[in-house]
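Researcher: Good morning. I'm working through a list of sequences from a screen, and I'd like to move beyond sequence-only analysis. For each chain I'm collecting a predicted structure so we can compare shapes side by side. This is the next one on the list. No need for commentary yet; just the structure.
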Amino acid sequence: MEINLKPIGFAKNNEKKHFGGWQDVVTDLIIDEKYKDALDGLSGYSHLIVLYFMHEVKKCDIRHVPQGKVGEVPEVGIFACRCAERPNPIGISTARIVAIKDNVVSVKGLDTVDGTPILDIKPYTPQYDAAKDAKVPEWVNKLDY
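Model: Good morning. Structure tokens for this chain:
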């Protein structure tokens, strides 16, 4: 099977690889001009779900210590964490919309480095996107966001 994905734009924020601390980073999503009209109606939402390709990831791990916090959190399988070194380094994150102007959507809290290809965005809608009775392992509370 062949899968072809085409980015709809890219992230611009002057950030380089780091663990955690993304909550205050403002990122501009520079959307390709041909998709500009697809942003109509987005201003009524407070948050976006962003699907992106972690283009700087060069390896695949099977197991990983999230955020390099050895001794603070357990080593887990790569699918049990949000770490980038996955077989297909595709990320999905929820970010707050700060502004929308022309083909640029500014968001806060998106964990992407400068130049990250944006594959898709969709508005965060609590009744569809929130999971009832969701649980996470206790160690997740030790991670930096």
